[in-house]
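Colleagues,

For the teaching module next term, I've prepared a clean inverse folding example: a structure given as tokens, and then the sequence designed for it. I'd like students to try predicting residues themselves before seeing the answer, so please don't circulate the second half yet.
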């Protein structure tokens, strides 16, 4: 095991990897309850969704650990699942199988782009300053996720955002998770992030934030599997319906852009915490990571659970010491077990993971010191990414704003020749993405 995963070589241990894998799982466990909640609006059976969400996440996370050997984890992505629910009712005539066909198609296309080397080539074409900005932007983003989920940041009364109700149980649990995590990290306690989550879950019981499970075991239900190849109401196959509908093909392009660049940003964020981001901002083993992630997107459509993608919450496990794919394998196994015990796992509230996410956000801010803010050609595009990711609540949208800004500023300064050809392609693709989204 040590030789296969290079555990000792990367300065880790089996115990550290297993613990960090549990940290990542607990930070992601909310998806087991949230994904069925979102997609059931499209008419999909919630019990089946809970099961296949776990199985899809588990299988693809294990694949990430075995093939890429990096501490990344995959599950159904938020945002895209809401889009799937939306297009089911607006463009697919209420048939969710067609919407999953869209997901399956965009996953296959992304996989082909990786095999052809285009996705990796675009990442290589990104200037170092923008790579650093992506890490900073993801730091803001992941901290914001934690604060919003705990109700510490809420929609304001007459303002865009405001501080939440300090007396609400969710707010209290979120603050406790932050304080415990930071206190333990300040004292260099091993497993600080995991302990912070567990303490918050326990203290959330009397406050009513940690809900009592209605059952211990749930029967396996995989009725959503094979959705893209199911027959629609008119007797045609769902994926064929997608391929012959121009409107759905445009939707597939929009989802492709989101998946394409979300993963790029997430991989860089986790790599920054897991010590596999090089000094010039390249992610080690990126080809293997992108291959698994692209296959996961298609697998999400096949499982009927929306696009499965790399989760930025995996950075919490990396911050807790994960350095190899063994952490991913342990996270994946826990997801598969959760398919049988989903009522219990779903009790881990998002408020309990707030401290882990906020602390990871703090760690990722270190990259901001390496950006030359005095040079507008470097600083302004970086600024657009850092703020855009958080303010739009979208990794891909923030990256798009930064890419377009980089090209525009370079042109105004007469430095157009310094822009690599694929950066032109990426910036142009983002312009189209914003127009059709």
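(Answer key — instructors only)
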């Amino acid at each position: 095991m040590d030789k296969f995963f290079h555990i000792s070589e990367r300065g880790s241990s089996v115990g550290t990897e297993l613990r960090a894998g549990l940290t990542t799982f607990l930070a992601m466990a909310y998806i087991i309850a949230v994904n069925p909640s979102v997609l059931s609006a499209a008419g999909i059976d919630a019990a089946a969704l809970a099961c296949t969400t776990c199985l899809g996440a588990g299988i693809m996370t294990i694949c990430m650990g075995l093939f890429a050997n990096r501490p990344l984890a995959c599950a159904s992505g938020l945002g895209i699942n809401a889009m799937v629910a939306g297009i089911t009712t607006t463009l697919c005539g209420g048939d969710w199988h067609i919407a999953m066909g869209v997901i399956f198609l965009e996953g296959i296309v992304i996989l082909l782009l990786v095999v052809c080397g285009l996705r990796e080539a675009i990442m290589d074409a990104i200037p170092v300053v923008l790579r650093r900005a992506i890490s900073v932007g993801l730091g803001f983003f992941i901290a914001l996720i934690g604060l919003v989920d705990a109700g510490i940041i809420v929609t304001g009364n007459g303002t865009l955002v405001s501080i939440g109700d300090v007396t609400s149980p969710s707010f209290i649990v979120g603050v406790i998770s932050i304080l415990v995590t930071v206190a333990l990290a300040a004292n260099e306690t091993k497993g600080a992030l995991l302990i912070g989550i567990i303490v918050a879950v326990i203290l959330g019981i009397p406050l009513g934030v940690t809900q009592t499970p209605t059952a211990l075991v749930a029967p396996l239900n995989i009725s959503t599997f094979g959705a893209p190849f199911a027959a629609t109401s008119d007797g045609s196959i769902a994926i064929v319906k997608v391929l012959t509908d121009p409107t759905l093909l445009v939707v597939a392009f929009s989802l492709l852009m989101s998946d394409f660049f979300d993963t790029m940003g997430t991989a860089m964020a986790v790599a920054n915490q897991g010590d596999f981001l090089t000094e010039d901002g390249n992610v080690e083993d990126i080809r293997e990571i992108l291959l698994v992630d692209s296959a996961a997107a298609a697998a999400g459509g096949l499982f009927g659970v929306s696009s499965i993608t790399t989760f930025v919450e995996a950075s919490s496990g990396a911050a807790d010491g994960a350095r190899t794919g063994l952490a991913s394998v342990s996270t994946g196994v826990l997801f598969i077990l959760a398919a049988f015990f989903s009522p219990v796992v779903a009790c881990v509230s998002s408020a309990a993971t707030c401290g882990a996410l906020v602390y990871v956000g703090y760690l990722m801010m270190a990259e901001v010191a390496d950006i030359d803010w005095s040079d507008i050609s470097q600083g302004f595009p970086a600024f657009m990414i850092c703020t855009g990711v958080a303010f739009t609540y979208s990794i891909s949208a923030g990256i798009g704003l930064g890419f377009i800004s980089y090209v525009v500023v370079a042109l105004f300064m007469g430095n157009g020749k310094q822009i690599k050809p694929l950066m032109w392609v990426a910036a142009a693709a983002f312009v189209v993405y914003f127009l059709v989204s």
